[in-house]
Amino acid sequence: MLQLILHKGDTIMEMIAHIFDTIVTAIGSIYDECNAVDDFIRWALGIWGIHHTAYWIIGFFFTRKFKPAQNYHKYAILISARNEEAVIGNLLDSIARQDYPSELITVFVVADNCTDNTAKVAREKGAICYERFNNKDRTKGFALQFLFENIEKDYGIPSFEGYFIFDSDNLLNKDYISKMNDAFDSGEKIITSYRNTKNFDENWIASTYALHWLRSIRFRHRTRSVLRLATNIQGTGFLFANELVKDGWHYTSLTEDRAFTADAVAHGYQISYQDEAMFYDEQPTSLRIALRQRTRWSKGHLMAFQETGWALFKNIFVGNCYRDKSEKRKLTWASFIEGVRHRWASFDTLSQLFPSVIVKVFLWLVVTLVMYSCLRYSTGIENVLVFRTNNGFAKVLNFIFGDLYVNAGPGVQAALYTALLSILWNWIGKINYHFKNMLAAVYVFIVERKRIKKIPLHKKIFYCFTWPTFDIIYRWSMYAALFMKVEWKPIPHTSKVTIHDIEK
Predict the structure, then answer these.
(1) What is the SS3 assignment for 241?
(2) Which single residue of 248, 281, 359, 499 could bond 94 by disulfide (Cβ 3.0 to 4.6 Å)?
(3) Number of H helices, E strands in the chain
(4) Nearest of 305, 350, 355, 299 to residue 477 by alpha carbon
(5) What does the pLDDT read at residue 496?
(6) Whole-angstrom Cα distance, residue 337 to residue 259?
(7) Quick one: which of 239, 227, 243 has its CA closest to 274?
(8) d(CA 200, CA 197)
């Protein structure tokens, strides 16, 4: 009986081995076709984003300049605060010392689920403060929605021509509102501004954020403002016309700024940038906090793509899909140019929202890691160079270790070796990219040297080496956001820096 059982076991194992061999061979047999599709998609994604190279060049030389305003406009400043008593007073002080007529500025604060003295500090500093207690709807977007509802009830949304959004840790240059008014008076409906950092050199984590905001200015905002396109809102430090919230604030997702940007572009709005309006904010210094925040950003990014991606895609081909269809439009050169501008802005915004890093890693996992390994299961590998990728880092490794080759006959060993080599080649490519990415930090330190705080040279060099971690975290947070349930949590702010400290 025992011998019969063993014999049956052997037969089952042989059947399993045969089935495994058949499946792996079949998968490997379609590698060439799938690899061609992979190459085409990667080529298309490359073409999809090639315009960013032109943006980088234009942004190096140009930014939009606005003429001094002919009119002073009435503004409301909105601040959402969660236990921010340590920093909100400094922001309100910097608002109070603006060179803009104070009678045209009204400051509103929503003390959102606060357990400290945020509301008290805000009122002592002259702000109108509403307190909100709702632990179910906890995003910043819900707090702003609550604030707009109260403004509509007590004042009316049209009472203010424009609305500023700031975070509690921000500080404003003395001429900030005046410079933003220049842009608003020119007819712009949505304007973002120059985001500087008040704790740039506190540690390497803060420096990566600071460099990212400056990179965005040079690589995105400046060019898009020159070309009259739509740049992207980044959380704080922006102004928009009251018409955008005539029906209230509806952006309550994990990243209300991305949702606001995408929806505004889908509705045909231009988003401009005022390079002369500078504000400062505080960056995270804890890796744990940074990872939590970046995962939330990534989740919100995916949500914004899901909510608005289709509308942006349609706009590329049919124009503004939200326009009043009953409105008769006369075709003129001006309307034609505006149509082209809006279609390109929709394409540009969609290219930002599209989760290309997820598409690329999916293709790599399926085509390269799985299918290519299955192909080598059938063919084996012969004299495959370990550091074969054609980039600078691979050449350095070849120089250090010499030409290392791998050989294996057909079978599981060849498949495993191929999978390991694929992972190695992928990492070599990523490391090579991140070495080149350090040049972006060098570039930012050079071109923005007059506007960032003085930092010792040895720290700048160190920050150039740590800078690539920002994009590494972005990539992995996007992967995690696909599968994680992400909740909004406040980012603690503790910096005691004031606008007077910065101006010294």
Answers:
(1) strand
(2) 499
(3) 19, 10
(4) 299
(5) 86
(6) 26
(7) 239
(8) 5
C-alpha to C-alpha distance for 307 and 49, rounded to whole angstroms: 21
**Burial class of residue 9 in the structure, from the number of CB atoms within 10 Å of its CB (0-12 exposed, 13-18 middle, 19+ buried):** exposed
- Contact, 303 vs 294, CB < 8 A? no
374 close to 28: Cβ distance less than 8 angstroms? yes
Q: Collapsing DSSP states into helix, strand and coil, what is residue 222?
A: helix
- Let me know: does 193 contact 176? Beta carbons within 8 Å: yes
Beta strands in 97-245 (DSSP E): 105-112, 128-132, 162-167, 171-172, 190-197, 238-241
User: Which residue segments constitute the domains of the chain, with CATH numbers given?
Assistant: 23-50+357-467 (no CATH), 62-321+332-350 (3.90.550.10)
Please choose, from the candidates 82, 235, 236, 216, the residue with its C-alpha nearest in 3D space to the C-alpha of residue 171: 236
Q: What angle, rounded to 10 degrees, do the helices at 356-363 and 31-48 form?
A: 160
CA distance 109 to 98: 18
Q: Which residues of the chain have pLDDT under 50?
A: 1-8
Which residues neighbour 172 within 8 Å (Cβ) at sequence distance 6 or greater? Answer: 91, 94, 95, 98, 166, 279, 280, 499
> Whole-angstrom Cα distance, residue 448 to residue 453?
10
Angle at which helices 140-154 and 256-266 cross, to 10°? 60
- Taking only the tens place, the pLDDT of each residue in 292-306 is 999 999 999 999 999
The two structure tokens encoding residue 495? 């910096």
State both tokens at 152. 């509509």
Q: State pTM to two decimals.
A: 0.91
Cα distances (angstroms) measured from residue 155 to each of 86, 124, 130: 29, 21, 13
